[in-house]
C-alpha cells in the first residue's frame, strides 16, 4: 500500500496541496485493506468486547464512543483543520447538542459569556439557563464587530458568522485576538459556511462548532452536530459532556453524514453559485427590499466575508412588503419547498416571522438555495413574485 492511498488519504502527498474536492472524497476513510469496503458500514453496538483494564480501550460502551463516529470525527477534523494532527472533533446528536456542550460545560457561576444578539434563536433559552446558574451573559450584534465592546472580563466569546437568519458577518480574527488578549476562549458557529466555506480554527477560534443538519450533510434527512478544537485539553470537557448528558448521534446518522461529505464540495459550490444568481435576481425586483447574501459585491458583509470565507453559502434573505405577500410568494413557488432549515439539495424558503423568535419584519423570508439549475430557480422566483403581486 502506498502512502497516498492510506487512510489519512486527505493528507497532502509530498509537495502537493490537495483541493477541497479531493479532500472530501477521502476524508476520514480507514487505511486501505484488501477486501474490506472503502467505507465501512455503520457499527451498531451498545457495548464492545472488553477484556481487562478499560482505561486504554478505544471502544467500551456505546455512549462513550463508536467506530462510525470516529470515522466521521476524523473526516470533519481534516476539513476544519487540514494538515493539523492536533485537531480533535466530537460529534453530537444535533447542532444544539454541540452548542450546549461547549457553553454549558465551560461556563461557571461568576463567569462572563458574550453571545451574539442576532444568533440562532435557541441561544435564548441557553442564555436563560446560563443566567440561572449565575453566569453573566452579555449580547451584542454580529455586524460591525459590536461584540468587541462587551469583552472586558469575559471568559468565553460566542460568534455566529454569517449569522442566521440576518446574514451579518464579523471579523473573526479581530474578535478572536481581542478575546484572547483578555483571556477568553472563542467559539464560532460555522453552520452556515461549512468547513469548505470558512475555517474558524485557522482564523484564531478555539472551537469550530456547527449543526451538521444543514449544508454539511445537505439532504434534509439527518440531525447532527460537532465541536472541533485543537487540543485534548479543550476537547475533554466537551466529550465528557456528551457522555454525561448522552447527546450522542446514532451510528446510522453518523454514517449517513460521513457518506454525504463526499459531495460537500460539489453541493456547496453549486449552492453558492445558485444563491448568488437568486440574490441578484431578487435585487432587480421593486417588491423586494433588504436582499442579503455575503457573496453580493455590495452587500454590507461582503468585504469582511471575502477576507475570511472561501465560499459564501446557500442562504439568501430578503423582505417582501408584508406577511400576506410573503405567504402568497411561498405558496406560488414550484421548486422551493416551504420549510425550515437550510443547506439541502432541494431549495427551501420560509417566512421567519412565523416562529416569533427572530427580530425580523413580517415579510422577511429566508431562502436556502439547493442544487437545482440556477436558471430554473430564478424563473420560479420571478413567477412567484408576479403571482404574489397579483394577490
Ligand atoms: C440549525 C442551526 C443550529 C442548530 O442545529 P440543530 O442541528 O438543528 O440542533 C445552530 N446554529 C445555527 C446557525 C443553525 O442554523
UniProtKB/TrEMBL annotation:
<dbReference type="GO" id="GO:0016829">
    <property type="term" value="F:lyase activity"/>
</dbReference>
<feature type="region of interest" description="Disordered">
    <location>
        <begin position="1"/>
        <end position="21"/>
    </location>
</feature>
<dbReference type="InterPro" id="IPR015422">
    <property type="entry name" value="PyrdxlP-dep_Trfase_small"/>
</dbReference>
<dbReference type="InterPro" id="IPR015421">
    <property type="entry name" value="PyrdxlP-dep_Trfase_major"/>
</dbReference>
<keyword id="KW-0456">Lyase</keyword>
<protein>
    <submittedName>
        <fullName>Cystathionine gamma-lyase</fullName>
        <ecNumber>4.4.1.1</ecNumber>
    </submittedName>
</protein>
<dbReference type="Pfam" id="PF01053">
    <property type="entry name" value="Cys_Met_Meta_PP"/>
</dbReference>
<dbReference type="InterPro" id="IPR015424">
    <property type="entry name" value="PyrdxlP-dep_Trfase"/>
</dbReference>
<comment type="similarity">
    <text>Belongs to the trans-sulfuration enzymes family.</text>
</comment>
<dbReference type="InterPro" id="IPR000277">
    <property type="entry name" value="Cys/Met-Metab_PyrdxlP-dep_enz"/>
</dbReference>
<keyword id="KW-0663">Pyridoxal phosphate</keyword>
Amino acid at each position: 500500500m502506498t502512502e497516498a492511498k492510506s487512510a489519512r488519504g486527505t493528507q497532502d502527498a509530498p509537495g502537493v496541496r490537495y483541493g477541497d474536492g479531493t479532500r472530501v472524497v477521502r476524508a476520514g476513510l480507514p487505511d486501505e485493506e484488501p477486501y474490506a469496503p472503502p467505507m465501512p458500514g455503520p457499527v451498531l453496538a451498545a457495548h464492545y468486547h472488553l477484556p481487562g483494564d478499560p482505561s486504554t480501550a478505544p471502544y467500551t460502551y456505546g455512549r462513550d464512543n463508536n467506530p462510525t463516529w470516529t470515522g466521521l470525527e476524523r473526516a470533519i477534523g481534516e476539513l476544519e483543520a487540514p494538515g493539523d494532527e492536533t485537531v480533535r472533533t466530537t460529534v453530537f446528536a444535533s447542532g444544539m447538542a454541540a452548542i450546549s456542550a461547549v457553553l454549558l460545560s465551560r461556563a461557571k457561576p461568576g463567569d462572563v459569556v458574550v453571545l451574539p444578539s442576532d444568533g440562532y434563536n435557541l441561544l435564548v433559552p441557553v442564555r436563560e439557563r446560563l443566567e440561572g446558574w449565575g453566569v453573566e451573559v452579555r449580547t451584542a450584534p454580529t455586524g460591525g464587530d459590536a461584540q468587541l465592546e462587551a469583552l472586558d472580563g469575559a471568559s468565553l466569546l460566542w460568534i455566529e458568522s454569517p449569522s442566521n437568519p440576518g446574514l451579518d458577518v464579523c471579523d473573526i480574527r479581530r474578535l478572536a485576538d481581542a478575546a484572547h488578549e483578555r483571556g477568553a476562549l472563542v467559539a464560532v458557529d460555522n453552520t452556515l459556511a461549512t468547513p469548505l466555506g470558512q475555517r474558524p480554527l485557522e482564523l484564531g477560534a478555539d472551537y469550530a462548532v456547527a449543526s451538521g443538519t444543514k449544508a454539511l450533510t445537505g439532504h434534509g434527512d439527518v440531525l447532527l452536530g460537532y465541536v472541533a478544537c485543537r487540543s485534548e485539553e479543550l476537547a475533554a470537557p466537551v466529550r465528557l459532556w456528551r457522555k454525561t448528558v448522552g447527546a450522542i448521534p446514532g451510528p446510522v446518522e453518523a454514517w449517513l453524514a460521513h457518506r454525504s461529505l463526499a459531495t460537500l464540495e460539489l453541493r456547496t459550490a453549486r449552492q453558492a453559485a445558485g444563491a448568488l444568481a437568486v440574490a441578484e435576481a431578487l435585487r432587480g425586483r421593486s417588491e423586494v427590499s433588504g436582499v442579503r447574501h455575503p457573496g453580493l459585491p455590495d452587500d454590507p458583509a461582503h468585504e469582511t466575508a471575502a477576507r475570511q470565507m472561501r465560499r459564501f453559502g446557500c442562504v439568501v434573505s430578503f423582505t417582501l412588503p408584508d406577511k400576506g405577500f410573503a405567504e402568497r410568494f411561498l405558496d406560488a413557488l414550484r421548486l422551493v419547498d416551504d420549510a425550515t432549515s437550510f443547506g439541502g439539495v432541494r431549495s427551501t424558503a420560509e417566512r421567519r416571522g412565523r416562529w416569533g423568535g427572530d427580530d425580523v419584519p413580517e415579510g422577511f423570508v429566508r431562502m436556502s438555495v439547493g442544487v437545482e439549475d440556477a436558471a430554473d430557480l430564478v424563473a420560479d422566483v420571478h413567477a412567484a413574485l408576479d403571482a404574489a403581486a397579483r394577490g
